[in-house]
Amino acid sequence: GALVWIRQLHRKVAERTQALRATMARLEEETKTSATLAERNRLAAEIHDGLEQGLNGIMMQLDGVETKLSRSPEGAKHHLDLARKMVRFSRTEVRHSLWDWKAPALADHDLKTALSDIVSQMANGNLTHVDVQVSGNSRPLPPAMEHHLLRITQEALTNALKHAQARTVTVSLNFADDAVLLSVRDDGRGFVPATVLNGMVGHLGLQNLRSRARKLGGELTVTSEPGNGATIAVRIPCAPGGTKPD
Predict the structure, then answer these.
(1) pLDDT one-digit tens code per residue, 105-119
(2) Surface-to-core class of residue 53, CB atoms within 10 Å of its CB (0-12 exposed, 13-18 middle, 19+ buried)
(3) Do residue 57 and residue 139 come from a single domain?
């Protein structure tokens, strides 16, 4: 009787072990799949918010060349020089995106300086006037926070320059006691936020912005209506020392 019981127990243990191995294998495969999807989503966001915006800027400069080539050779040369600089910058963006490094603009600068540099580069040669305003007690922020805030600025500013037909755009960065607030406001033609945020084709960028804000524990708001410009704002909780509050 004992021998039969031991054999039955052995069989049950073997069956449970086999089932456990199958479960572990499935979980491992799901983990790999999840990691692959997460990496794919990260790269998609980086390519869209970094490289694609650089390519959009290059296209705008080349449009300027086409416009000025016959009547203003010097003006055309200026746009070509800017396009070359943007190509070099975009090549660096690709390398940083593939290796998950911080945005190159942040490599040697804080967020405030990087924002000014990016805005200056993107607005150069554009008829839209772009103003940068920084307020509050400026302080170092966690690298991931600075990276996502810079990417949010790039995407929001690109939308304003490319689609809004705005005369002026204001980029505001406010260091509050318990949060960092970033906004990009334009006086362009506006749009219906619900339509865009619900996934209208061609507006992957705003979906990326919302995703980046959520990764930082923050919230994104889009305020606009046709004919009255738009404001894209994000609020990220942040303690005075620069870290996210518990």
Answers:
(1) 677 788 999 899 888
(2) buried
(3) no
